[in-house]
From TrEMBL, chains A, B:
It comes from the Bacteria. The keyword Metal-binding applies. NADP(+) binds at L10, G11, C12, G13, T14, V15, G16, S17. Its EC number is 1.1.1.3. Catalyzes the conversion of L-aspartate-beta-semialdehyde (L-Asa) to L-homoserine (L-Hse), the third step in the biosynthesis of threonine and methionine from aspartate. This is Homoserine dehydrogenase. The lineage of its organism: Bacteria, Bacillati, Actinomycetota, Actinomycetes, Micromonosporales. One of its GO terms (biological process) is threonine biosynthetic process. Its cofactor is a metal cation.
Length: 436, 436
């Protein structure tokens, strides 16, 4: 048989351990699929002493010197499952420049500074694969960067963070508030002790940047992504959504558009939004992920599965390992980054969105006229107005859903509404997605 | 710029016309993604005179000599969208042996005799891509043959025929019978004048063979697939399913299993089945397709989108064209067929299934005992029995759902029930899938 393809594994936490386990369990199948066996050359960890249970691997393979491991002549492929910007970037650049293939699950690094990695890969003539960085086990990056390359993607809408989807699903199911639902998620292990990266949308924003880069052949970084988390979503918002036949999801949205001069642009954003229950993303519950793609010719597509967890992420990592190992044996490497389109990323204010706005207003004649006037001044067109039950008090409820308008105009409209005498309070403001 | 990659297009019907249109509309993008422009060298059609509307192509490119076109030195890639076994097989074998890459949407040929094509591809050192052959625009084959190659697929369950899904969705929504729903589908253009290939499950069976081959690294042909269509699904069946919290779908199922000696096997089948409304496949309505994949490490995945139509199919064809054109420029070809596992395909009788059986029985003591005795003799374990409303007459209704058992034992059980004195009639027999 052909001589083995040798891997350096950087990191041996939840995902790394499952990579080791799967490499062991599937070794015969993997060898048959690649045409050569896979072997672990070494595993870089922070501390050698840690108990790693019954991991099926020679303890002598562990090392605390990742750079030394990467530089070894007998290492062909570097698998990085440590995460974070540094030292991961230094390691991967070193590997790629030396012509070693890299498989990584590091979404933060790819979203912050993917360009450096892609440039190093081009320089070293090496493969850079990162299926596991977005939506865990769901085959998504390969479809986007290969299957749909004959088509024109117009919009990608995804639920790409399991923690926030669990929390919002719980709020929807039980009527609980955010704090209570977060507590439940933490108890059940769906939220980390410090949930900031998830609930503030940082994790989803990194994935949005990666998806947008692939979908639009344009370098998009995390800094380009407008980001709002779910900490301010209230039980009242969830109830408003229900009344509209909708549910609230934290969406990442990457959409093609045009600026005032008609030049093509993209907008990339992460925020909670109402989507109708009839939308395929609405039924994505618990910690599942799904990505909805709208393409010119293909129409609507959806990819659904587990977005996190050791085994699902390890599955995506190993799929990439098989691909780069095959390329290596064939003496080729995959098409490098495709960023030819280089579209400008427009600011959130120019993104076209729709708002759902609930207002407590004085229950007297002329109120609707005054409110409608504010919308008109900002050139925001109203789709529906619903007058809520007055409840016997001096107030009435107005629920307004707009047509699509620039986000800045919608935000300014809400700002001016807050200042109106007859508006007691703006009780809920949510964007609406999915053609409700 | 690099010299163009030149395509021979075989067939110019619905899909072929959309391929021509997209090649024209997206030419700048396609060239940027490939690194070279795509050019149409010729289009083989049956008749030259036909009006092809405003197809953006030089009429001089049309020819009625497909073999002559394929053999031309300036043809690099052959795109076949004619369908059927012959003459398509002769053409594609000719192309592949000559080292020309082939992109085809021909599910019937791949399912009947994929081996001949794969062998010709290996012989000629050429690419054979066929994403469009299963589930139209949904990127499915590339995820199966690449993304999940580090994992072990246990089961693939798909809705892969839009016509039958439209019919069953209509029956479910309106309570109509099969004939009436078929008529509606024909009127709306969802069913062809001769709907046999769709409603008898031939189309789905071809796709099942292709999916099973990729999922299990085993050559599976259409002849290996157990096939039942939907012509015998009645309004009463649909009502029974509803009463169970289920809906009826025509499913293609490819599952790993084991024979009596514990050797690994696969079973591949197409038949209508009840699935619970909570299953992700249950909400796949109208003419949409979806494929649900269960893998060891990745867990549950679903791929959803348009399974047919000119533009969606053309999108899949062009995605493949970009891939083979890139390979061509890089001087490589993709990994060939992976059939190393070569698992035996076991007959339907050995497949493990569950049955839902409705019986009209005499309403008298001892009936349940007698019925239960039949199940016990065939070693079929009963999961639930529901005694229907007797309706005041001399009969009662029994609704029985079994646990998993070999299909032959279940079929034999039903056969024996039909012969029992106390059983007036077996009113509905349906398999149950999706863990209801």
């Amino acid at each position: 048989m052909t001589s083995p393809v040798r891997l350096a594994l950087l990191g041996c936490g939840t995902v790394g351990s499952d990579v080791v386990r799967l490499l062991h369990e599937q070794s015969a199948d993997l060898a048959a699929r690649i045409g050569a066996p896979l072997e672990i050359a070494g595993i870089a960890v922070r501390r050698l002493g840690r108990d790693r249970g019954d991991l099926p691997v020679d303890p002598a393979l562990f090392t605390t010197d990742p750079l030394g491991l990467i530089k070894r002549d007998d290492v062909d492929v570097v698998v990085e499952v440590v995460g974070g910007i540094e030292p991961a970037r230094t390691w991967l650049v070193e590997a790629l420049r030396a012509g070693k293939s890299v498989v990584t699950a590091n979404k933060a690094l790819l979203a912050e500074d993917g360009a450096t990695l892609h440039d190093a890969a081009a320089e070293g003539g090496a493969d850079l694969y990162y299926e596991a960085s977005v939506a865990g086990a769901i085959p998504l990056l390969r479809p986007l960067r290969e299957s749909l390359h004959g088509d024109r993607i117009n919009r990608v809408t995804g639920i790409v963070n399991g923690t926030t989807n669990f929390i919002l699903s719980a709020m929807d199911a039980t009527g609980a508030g955010f704090a209570e639902a977060l507590e439940e998620a933490t108890e059940l292990g769906y939220a980390e002790a410090d949930p900031t990266a998830d609930v503030e949308g940082f994790d989803a924003a990194a994935k949005a940047a990666i998806l947008a880069s692939l979908a639009f052949h344009t370098r998009v970084t995390a800094a380009d992504v407008h980001r709002e988390g779910i900490t301010e979503v209230t039980a009242a918002d969830v109830a408003s959504a229900k009344a509209m036949g909708c549910t609230i999801k934290l969406l990442c949205i990457a959409a093609r558009g045009a600026d005032a001069a008609g030049r093509e642009t993209v907008s990339v954003r992460v925020h909670p939004a109402m989507i109708p229950l009839t939308h395929p993303l609405a039924s994505v519950g618990d910690a599942f992920n799904a990505v909805f793609v709208e393409a010119e010719a293909a129409g609507q597509l959806m990819f659904y599965g587990r977005g996190a967890g050791g085994a699902p992420t390890a599955s995506a990592v190993l799929g990439d390992v098989v691909a780069v190992a095959r390329n290596r044996l064939a003496g080729v490497h995959a098409a490098s980054e495709s960023a030819y389109a280089d579209l400008p990323v427009r600011p959130m204010g120019e993104a076209l969105t729709r708002y759902h706005i609930s207002l407590d207003v004085a229950d007297r004649p002329g109120v609707l006229e005054a409110v409608a006037g504010v919308f008109a001044r900002h050139e925001v067109s109203i789709a529906t107005v619903r007058q809520g039950p007055a409840g016997g008090g001096p107030d009435a409820e107005l629920v307004i859903v707009t047509h699509v308008a620039p986000d800045a105009a919608l935000a300014a409209t809400v700002g001016e509404l807050r200042g109106l005498d007859i508006v007691r309070s703006v009780t809920s403001v949510l964007r609406v997605e999915g053609g409700a």
